[in-house]
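Entry, Tuesday afternoon. Goal for today is a structural model of the target with pyridoxal-5'-phosphate bound, before we commit to ordering more compound. Inputs were pasted exactly as handed over by J.K., no edits. I checked the ligand SMILES twice against the vendor sheet because last time a stereocentre got dropped in transcription.
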Amino acid sequence: MKIPTLDLTRNYERIREEVADALEEVLESQYFILGPVEKAFEEEISAYLGGAQAIGCASGSDALLLALMALDVSEGDEVITTPYSFFATVSCITRLGAKPVFVDIDPDTYNINLEQLMDKVTSRTKAIIPVHLFGQMAPLEEVSHELESRGIAIVEDAAQAFGSWRQVEGEIIRAGAWGSIGCYSFFPTKNLGGYGDGGMVVSSRSDLAARLRTLRVHGAGTTYIHEEVGLNSRLDALQAAILRVKLRHLDEWNEERRLVADRYNLLFAEHDLLENVKPPKELKGNYHIYHQYVPRVNNRSKLSAFLEGKGITTRVYYPLCLHLQQCFGFLGYKEGDFPEAEKLSHESLAFPIFPELTVEEQEYIVGAAADFYAKK
Ligand SMILES: *Cc1c(COP(=O)(O)O)cnc(C)c1O
C-alpha cells in the first residue's frame, strides 16, 4: 500500500465536472481579476462567516501582511504570537519593521498560551496573532475583552482553520470571524484549497475592510489615484471559481476529516499504543476540523522511517520553532526560551489525513505503527 499524507487526486475525482463547468464559465467571460466570480465568492464567504466582509488576496501570507498594514503596524510596535506555526505568521511582522514577541504554547492544544500572553503585553503591543493550529481554535474569549479594552487588535491566523468553530456562551464563533481581522490561505493543501495560491482577509469593521480593499490594489481607492503604498495582491477569478465549487462541499469534507481523526483515536487505543502515540486533544466547545492529525509520538524519526518503508508518508510540522530560525536570530531568543513549543517540535508527527482516506488504509497505518513499537 502507498499512502501519502494528502491525496488531492481523490478529491478532484469527486468534483471534476463541477470544476470543469466553473472554469469554462470564467474562460468564456475572459474576466480574470476582481471580476464577478471573485465578488460572488467573497459574498459567499461573508455569508458563511455570518456577515464579516471578505476581501480576496493572493495568498495567506499576503493576508497576514495586509492585515497588519491595515492596522498600521510599523517600526517600534510589538506583535505577540506563537513560536509554533508556519513561517508566514511571523514574517509579516518583521517585514513591517515591527517586533515579534513570542509566547509559549499550551501543551494540550498546541495553540498559544493565552494566560502567558497577557504577561507580555506592553504599551507598544499593537496586535496579537493567535494561530488556530492544525484546525483547532484558540479559546480567545479568555483574553478578547481585556485586549479590546486596551486597544490591542486580534489578527487571527486561520490559514489552517477555515470552517472550524468554537461555541462560547451558546454562540458559535467561526475561526477568522472573531478578531479585528481574520486571515485565510487557499494554498492547495489547506482544507479549503485552490489549484494555486490564494488567500483572504475578513473583517466586521467596515473601516478596516475598506482599507484592506484599497491596500490590495496598490493603495488606490480610485483607479490610478493612490492614497498610500499598498500591494498587488488579488485572488484571481480561476481560483475563485474553483474555491466556490469546493466551498459548497467543505462542511461535508470537514465532517469526514473528523471521522478520520476519531477513527485514529480509536485505533491507537485498540492497539494499546497510547503509551507511545498520544492523540491530539480537542478542547471542549471546539469543532476541530483536523487540517492535520498530529499526535505526539515516542522515537519519532525511527517511527517515521519505519512507516515510510511500509509506504506510509508522515510529516513533521514543525521541526524548528520560529524563535530559533536563523533569520530571526536578531531577536535574541535562544533554545530553552519556550520549552513546550520546543518539546512539541521534537515529538509531533502528522499522520495522513484527508476526507477520502479509507478505513482499510487507517487500519494499515495504525497496524504498522503497532508493529514498530512491538519490535522496539
Ligand atoms: C499556510 C499558512 C500560511 C500561509 O499561507 P500561504 O497561502 O501559503 O501564503 C500562514 N499561516 C499558517 C498557519 C499557514 O498554515
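The mean pLDDT is 97.
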